[in-house]
């Protein structure tokens, strides 16, 4: 039996930031509105494309694992904000790290990185591959209408990556659950793509739109349901969980989720104040930060869950 262990990790967040106060200088908003409702204090904004952020995170993860690009068997890149629709941007990362393997993008929005971990885990457990790079990367600032305060304050840019390696030693990814609720496709959407009428400038709906209160309710339900399912599948209970790394969309969503699951609040990792919602990148960035802060220790059981447009949801349970 092969187990998929995380052996390397890395992140890339652009140096430029916009604080809540900065936003209030050009938009009718304030730190007093944003911080208590979302937990966000600032967000990092990139002047380079998603693939550049992804490449830096990928190189750091490879260095951390002590392997080179040529050692990889597969690259999975989760993003909802690729530089180009074709070619996929996993191929850009592949070229930059010098890998000769399969490489593809997946779009499961904010759940994308956990979808990627699940896929990578299955590829390794099947015995097909030994080393898989999973990246979550976004440049959502490009897809925001900066005159719409309802959405512009919520998101940020960044990337994170992990190396999954096969080992016969029990542990690593213990299980995962994926779901999608198509009835909620319209509550979180961007019209970018063929739904844009290219001849009618007025119908251009390029930017991200969301029904925040519906997203809020469904996020808690989606992440809660799949977290319970993955724990049951692995024959564990919430008492066995040492750390929860949830998707960072809103601190109040995380608080409500943790309290409904009756998990000790101290066990939730939260770094949304620094980055805002970086969609597919929130979880790999949080893994890097949790490691830097000593919050992840060998032998711990970690539950990670996410929710995003689609409406996708995902939960992964792993032994560090
Ligand atoms: N600054 C100041 N005022 C604002 C802002 C802003 N940035 N945005 C909205 N408002 C105003 C509205 O215009 C409205 O004013 P009105 O009462 O005069 O009409 C008022 O604040 C309340 O607006 P609501 O949208 O009802 O605010 P709510 O309390 O629901 O908070 C929020 C909005 C933070 C988005 C909340 O719904 C939420 O947390 N939703 C879930 C998280 C989410 O959607 N994240 C996005 C990504 S989803 C994902 O990652 C899966």
From TrEMBL:
> What ranges does the record give for the region ACP-binding, renumbered to this chain?
248-252
Q: What's the top EC group for this one?
A: transferase
GO biological process per UniProt: fatty acid biosynthetic process
Q: Which UniProt keywords apply?
A: Acyltransferase, Cytoplasm, Fatty acid biosynthesis, Fatty acid metabolism, Lipid biosynthesis, Lipid metabolism, Multifunctional enzyme, Transferase
Q: Single GO cellular component annotation?
A: cytoplasm
Q: Where in the cell is it found?
A: Cytoplasm
Instruction: State the PANTHER family in the record.
Output: 3-OXOACYL-[ACYL-CARRIER-PROTEIN] SYNTHASE, BETA-KETOACYL-[ACYL-CARRIER-PROTEIN] SYNTHASE III 2
According to UniProt, the name of this protein is: Beta-ketoacyl-[acyl-carrier-protein] synthase III
